[in-house]
């Protein structure tokens, strides 16, 4: 199983600022319904981590770092476990 840490953008009132809400390079909203991105949020699908911060790049950096901190259980887990059990056995 692979966990994901999707990054989402939000308006000041907490509603989603979806990808089709384009902004100018200075961050001004171009979409008529857009209030402007106030913060970005990343939530791990594993349920062990989440954060929000006004800096989109910062959130993106932290979510990548968190994702990298996950043990690669889906690949090495069962084998490592078997090895441990063998080592522990008398
Ligand atoms: Zn928006
Ligand atoms: Zn996680």
Short description:
Helix content is 33%, strand content 14%.
What would your notes on this structure say?
By secondary structure, the protein is an alpha+beta fold. 7% of the residues are buried. The longest helix is centred in the C-terminal third of the chain and has 16 residues, at 73-88. It has one domain (7-88). A hairpin with a 6-residue loop joins strand 2 (39-43) and strand 3 (50-53). It is 33% helix and 14% strand. The two termini are 32 Å apart. The chain has a three-stranded antiparallel β-sheet with strand order 1-2-3, with helices on one face. One zinc ion (ZN) is lined by residues 3, 44, 46, 48-49, 66, 70.
Main traits of this protein?
single chain; three-stranded antiparallel β-sheet; elongated; binds zinc ion
Distance between the termini: 32 Å
The SSE order reads: EEEHH
Mean pLDDT, to the nearest integer, reads 87
Our count of domains comes out at 1
Overall morphology: elongated
Contiguous uncertain segments of 5+ residues: none
Rg, alpha carbons: 19 Å
Topology of helices and strands:
Layout: E1 7-10, E2 39-43, E3 50-53, H1 56-69, H2 73-88
Antiparallel strand pairs: 1-2, 2-3
This protein binds zinc ion (2 copies).
